[in-house]
Write a structure and sequence with these properties.
- It is a single chain.
- This protein has 213 residues and is α+β, with helices and mostly antiparallel strands.
- It has one domain.
- Helix content is 24%, strand content 46%.
- Strands 2-5-6-7-8-9 form a six-stranded antiparallel barrel.
- Strand 7 and strand 8 form a beta hairpin.
Length: 213
């Protein structure tokens, strides 16, 4: 009997651990399906972006010395990438008639401020506000970060998805450019037989699209 009593708590503990693992896996799958990612303990949406370099130096991926002339063989002044983004939309209503209709539709929630605000927000088809975007690196390091203004238009029957477009500035903290003394289509510094590079921070114009309101 004593052995049986000892086995019961162990079995219950194993079941609890299994349930916890299943719950974590379910939450991870739901988050992946919703298009959201966690970085540094914060939830971000996923955006598709393009940046155009605004710095004084080209972002150089590769360069060679040919016939004693520096030739740049590849640049990355325009970059398309997947980024993490978070935004806040203000949802103004410009039509007084529509505002009255929205307030009437949500009148039953007036006793609960949170539900009332959620109901009013769900009636909006248009939103505008600031966004922040980032490109994660390894070991929770941020390789690039951007700020700007985004406009969102709701779509779909669930009222949760939208088509958002934003524009702002993207700041890359680790950009590769030609080393000191090396200039494209010019002779290299005396005694140099290979192109040297250096890294610096550089900014660019950012265009971004995301899909959650």
């Amino acid at each position: 009997m004593a052995i049986g009593m000892a086995v019961l708590p162990t079995a219950a503990l194993a079941q609890e651990k299994t349930a916890a693992v299943d719950t974590n896996q379910t939450n991870a799958k739901e988050k992946a399906a919703s298009g959201r990612q966690n970085f540094g303990g914060l939830d971000f949406g996923i955006g598709v972006s393009m940046s155009y370099d605004l710095g004084n130096n080209d972002r150089v991926s590769d360069a060679v010395i040919t016939n004693n002339i520096v030739r740049v063989t590849r640049t990355e002044n325009i970059r398309a990438r997947i980024v993490l983004e978070s935004h806040y939309f203000a949802t103004p209503t410009f039509s007084s008639t529509r505002r009255v209709r929205e307030e009437a539709f949500c009148a039953s929630f007036r006793g609960n401020p949170v539900q009332y605000d959620n109901c009013m927000s769900a009636q909006k088809n248009f939103g505008i506000g600031p966004f922040v975007a980032l490109q994660p690196g390894g070991e929770k390091v941020i390789d690039a970060i951007g700020l700007g203004v985004m406009v969102g238009l709701r779509r779909g029957a669930d009222r949760a998805s939208s088509f958002n477009l934003g524009v702002g500035i993207f700041y890359d903290v680790d950009t590769r450019i030609l080393g000191n003394g090396f200039v494209e289509d010019k002779p290299p510094p005396a005694g140099e037989t290979e192109v040297r590079f250096r890294r610096q921070s550089q900014s660019g114009l950012l265009f971004i699209s995301s899909y959650s309101f």
